[in-house]
Amino acid sequence: MGILCHGNVISWHPAPQDIREACRKAAQHCKESGVDLGRLAVRHSLLMEGVVTHLLGCINVDVLRKNLDSVINPLTPKEEQVNKEVKERFFQPLTHKHWEGVEPVKFRQQLQELRGQQPKEQR
């Protein structure tokens, strides 16, 4: 959905604003350092212990190739250094580091609001 790459984040992305801002700053830092944040994100997900799910967006063949390269090839020493900086400067300070469950909560709130607007006999 674009939050961990150098592109624009889609307007309807469910991440809270503090996460979106941390990702924006991390992407800018990576860009200035000549490192691809998306590659760091893919490598990070591959090193997670346990059962994890990571969705890779592939809008064209070039992005698919970059993603496959990220899966196959380890980070360079420079990428490792920038990865460490990104984690320490932008992501460690976050209180919440994911947006899991945000959409269902919003959906339930909207549903309750809609129910509250209907006459009781229609509920």
TrEMBL record:
InterPro entries: AKR, NAD(P)_OxRdtase_dom_sf. It comes from Cherax quadricarinatus (Australian red claw crayfish). This is NADP-dependent oxidoreductase domain-containing protein. Coiled coil: none annotated. The lineage of its organism: Eukaryota, Metazoa, Ecdysozoa, Arthropoda, Crustacea. It comes from the Eukaryota. GO terms for cellular component: cytosol. GO terms for molecular function: oxidoreductase activity.
